[in-house]
Prior knowledge:
By secondary structure, the protein is of the alpha/beta class. It is built from 27 helices and 27 strands.
Amino acid sequence: xxxxxxxxxEPLVFVDEANSDSTFAMQLMRPSWRIMxxxxxxxxxxxxxxxxxxxxxxxxxxxxxxAHSAAxxxxxxxxxxxIAVILLDVVMEQQDAGLNLVNYVRKNLGLNDVRxxxxxxxxxxxxxxxxxxxxxINDYKTKSELTxxxxxxxxxxxxxxxxxxxxxxxxxxxxxxxxSASNELMSQNGLSHFCECVxxxxxxxxxxxxxxxxxxxxGDVLSFTEENHIHCLATSGMFSNLNDQNQFNEKLDxxxxxxxxxxxxxxxxxxxxxxxxxxxxxNHFCIFFQTNTVINxxxxxxxxxxxxxxxxxxxNVSLTSSLHRYAYxxxxxxxxxxxxxxxxxxxxxxxxxxxxxxxxxxxIDHFAETNDALGHQFGDALLCAVAxxxxxxFGSSCHxxxxxxxxxxxxxxxxxxxxxxxxxxFSEPFxxxxxxxxxxxxxxxxxxxxxxxxxxxxxxxTNIALKRAKSLQRSSxxxxxxxxxxxxxxxxxxxxxLRAAFENEKLFVVYQPQVDMRDQKAVGAEALLRWKxxxxxxxxxxxxxxxxxxxxxxxxxGEWVLRSACFELVHxxxxxxxxxxxxxxxxQAQFNHPLFLQSLERALRDTKxxxxxxxxxxxxxxxxxxxNVLIESLSHIKKLGPQISIDDFGTGFSSLSHLQKLxxxxxxxxxxxxNEIRDANxxxxxxxxxxxxxxxxxxxxxxxxxETEQQAKTLLQYGxxxxxxxxxxxxxxxxxxxxxxxxxxxxxxSI
Length: 751
Ligand code: C2E
Ligand code: CA
Ligand code: CA
């Protein structure tokens, strides 16, 4: 025996037998070391008991198991667990009975932790050194050597090493458990799930049932005073199924939690523990538990390791739940967002309630204007007010979401989600920042009954219905019908095809000559865009221009047309047509684009086109929108040199005073009015009126869509000299235009 294991370091402590109650209690709290005596001599049993009976080792009492033969020993050992030390007689029935038993214990029963002290009556029966090593035998003593003190020393030393071995084994098992538990914890996605999992794993780790809970704290943790300060996230044992806070407080002595929080440490008091955690967001959590036995140092160490995984878990859980919040909820209104709506829609589409469900999209009318006029903060408050009212009216039975800036959705039973019910919530004004705001909404709806597509399609189609409602009239509603879908999908398909065509340079510009009807001389041309698809078909501009406008593609395409037309203008001037004018269509989207003026300037500069020979055609309907803005933009454009003509004149509702203010250069009589010039009964009175108007305003005038000689003559007669139409020339490719111009000028010159 080495010096470090000297018995003098271990005080002999005798348990106070008089206080048997507390002894019992202590035994409950602190389990005894179990010593097994295997000897065929009954005296050895009693002598050993006498020597060790009332001792405590490492603050734990000893208890004894007795076997009088190897066979009896095998039987007991196969049933009893946690035996710390075996005091084994080497020679029993046979000379090698002791060693055979050791072999059996280690190999057959697989009991590797138990410490074995061999005893023999006579010297000379000592086992081989190999056997001592192989069988992991702690000690070999002759019975005569074993005085009380020596026996005590041997047993103490054996118990210490048993404890160490147990610790190592437990550590290993605990660590293995912790690793696998951590994996499980990481996969828990809700905070309460996670906490329940923590409690059950803590109980598994300590191998006993726990009265436990995981809690967080309402308010400031350090001013932890009020009784209802604790908010439980998960409970077990006697803390589960408690009805109210009072019952909970009765069961709990909170002092240990106060201590843990104050000191910022995990705190153990006998059989109770308060473990504290905080996550990245500085939320504090506490795991409290109590159990039937003391939580020993080894267990505390294991709990410590486990806790570091729990900390990671708490962060993970709060991270995933905040990610979840961000992913599925709108931070402004707290309503579900589009993604969440899609999820709910998915569930609805699969459920029995599908057939009676309706999805609505509710768009606040003129929200952008309100936002611009009163500020974003006001706009936000307004959206929150709408969200609140939607919640109050539909929240209990329907799913409400905010799917876009000023677009909300309500999904629910058809009896509830109806235009009438939705419109009703806008009947009263909303109070925002002490102002009353009266809102209206436009609604798109879809019945899910018989709907074939998935959630994304449902949302798209409802949007189509909403767009349709908007295009009809603000503050109206529209239910989705299948033909709407077909139409819109076709437009989307076309949009992609158009973009590809533009990128692959499959668009080109044709030029339709404009002539002076008096001498039939070409005075200019209108640039018109053409799209020839891969299979050789022409898509009419009336179809694809609106799509280009709608998708914003018109900005790039329009700029390209403008530059092409300017190049061609310069080219024609170089060819000698020095007064030739080039008309280019400018759509509203282009015109309103903040960079339009710059792109115009750049086109003129880059191509060196004579600006006064460029004519921009804007439509009359455009001329009608926001006159002041238009007047200002037109004046900027005119400063750069180009002329302005109003296309399709007569179809809109321009007022005369308005026209004067716009300071335009030319009116283009719409084809429809020219078309009315057919015979004596239909003499094109509107065309005539427009011509007169232009004369009185001193604006030049051109007729478009002139197809017949009669039309040309009539228009000339009314005083309109300029024309564009099939009667004179169809739109031409560049090559054809040049040829036509040469022929035409020769012919003209020869007249
Ligand atoms: P628009 O500006 O009113 O163009 C005149 C349209 O009338 C052209 O149709 C032209 O081919 C057609 N046209 C000319 N003479 C006659 C005729 O005697 N009889 C008949 N029935 N039609 C005639 P197109 O080229 O199909 O263009 C249709 C519309 O597409 C244009 O109407 C214009 O609004 C738009 N568009 C064409 N090119 C462009 C462009 O480059 N940019 C923009 N923004 N719009 C364009
Ligand atoms: Ca035009
Ligand atoms: Ca026109």
